[in-house]
From TrEMBL:
<feature type="binding site">
    <location>
        <begin position="12"/>
        <end position="19"/>
    </location>
    <ligand>
        <name>ATP</name>
    </ligand>
</feature>
<keyword id="KW-1015">Disulfide bond</keyword>
<feature type="domain" description="tRNA-specific 2-thiouridylase MnmA-like C-terminal">
    <location>
        <begin position="289"/>
        <end position="365"/>
    </location>
</feature>
<feature type="binding site">
    <location>
        <position position="38"/>
    </location>
    <ligand>
        <name>ATP</name>
    </ligand>
</feature>
<comment type="similarity">
    <text>Belongs to the MnmA/TRMU family.</text>
</comment>
<keyword id="KW-0963">Cytoplasm</keyword>
<keyword id="KW-0808">Transferase</keyword>
<feature type="site" description="Interaction with tRNA">
    <location>
        <position position="345"/>
    </location>
</feature>
<dbReference type="GO" id="GO:0000049">
    <property type="term" value="F:tRNA binding"/>
</dbReference>
<protein>
    <recommendedName>
        <fullName>tRNA-specific 2-thiouridylase MnmA</fullName>
        <ecNumber>2.8.1.13</ecNumber>
    </recommendedName>
</protein>
<feature type="active site" description="Cysteine persulfide intermediate">
    <location>
        <position position="206"/>
    </location>
</feature>
<dbReference type="Pfam" id="PF20259">
    <property type="entry name" value="tRNA_Me_trans_M"/>
</dbReference>
<keyword id="KW-0067">ATP-binding</keyword>
<dbReference type="Pfam" id="PF03054">
    <property type="entry name" value="tRNA_Me_trans"/>
</dbReference>
<comment type="function">
    <text>Catalyzes the 2-thiolation of uridine at the wobble position (U34) of tRNA, leading to the formation of s(2)U34.</text>
</comment>
<feature type="region of interest" description="Interaction with tRNA">
    <location>
        <begin position="156"/>
        <end position="158"/>
    </location>
</feature>
<keyword id="KW-0547">Nucleotide-binding</keyword>
Amino acid sequence: MSGQGPMRVLAAMSGGVDSAVAAARLRDAGHDVTGVHLALSAKPATMREGARGCCSVEDSRDARRCADVLDIPFYVWDLAARFREDVVEPFVAEYAAGRTPNPCLRCNEKIKFSAVLERARALGFDAVGTGHYARLSGSATGPTRPVLRRAADPDKDQSYVLGVLRPDQLDGALFPLGDTPKAEVRAEAAARGLVVAEKPDSHDICFIPSGDTRGFLAERIDEAPGEMVDPSGAVVGHHRGVHDFTVGQRHGLGIRRPAPDGRPRYVLGLEPVSRTVRVGPVEDLDVTTLSGADPVWLVDPPSGPLDCVVQVRAHGGTAGATVRVTADGVDVALAEPLRGVAPGQAAVFYRPDGGGDVVLGSATIAATA
């Protein structure tokens, strides 16, 4: 989004360095900026555990301190109920169904660029600005279709977790950090006197600050014991529920008998109806085709085969591909195998030319082969 002059912008401030510098840049660009911290937990922890989680009381205080330094209005919005309904509960349900969701994608889709954007527009704001690392061109109020691109810093690129957004959602977004390496963002924060300049990044699921996803799910999903079988169909172990596993997992399988060839076993597939966990050698994780549901397009939906680059994980997991639109979604044929692709993940499609950095669309992976 660019070129429309000063706007009223709501800056989402998590309490971290990225969103603080983003808010500062929006203010310096001449926009009328108001900071908002999203309270997403009904019972937030008092303190963060290093780089684990976010949305703590400490984060809220840090966001307020940064807003004070920037001399912008600041508010806290309680979206805990909406977050639980749209992100946490679907996350648990997906694991119970044997799929592997990415809650950051759903938070962007359902919270930051749905609930927050809707409320912001209702209050007269033109756009929502965040500290995401992605590049965006196009206008919030003009006729130009928004174009989402990878960030200049490939190690911090977040275009994948934004690839599920619709054009109308991106049309109301601003990402001021897309052209800047992370090291420069921290240096800028220090130069501005922001207390979060050296604050660790959050790397875990924000609503599981302990990092113990298995324990979190065990408190919310009843045990459903079943068998672990190898490619021959032989039972090699037992488990408490398919929600304890993800496709590609190697450690923590609890299989006491080694494979006949002595090689490690990996989770190949999860079958919640039969309560079966399929395990086998690493090469059996390779997939060459996948089907996707609920596609979202930032370009006109293709009427024929679409050559692209597909990405199936937030970092890595890319391959050349051909996408075909079907009655149920999309079919994707990979030019080379990808390993450990799990249903429930997102497949984000990028334009193959120009460095493969322009997002074309996305779909939720429904099945692989």
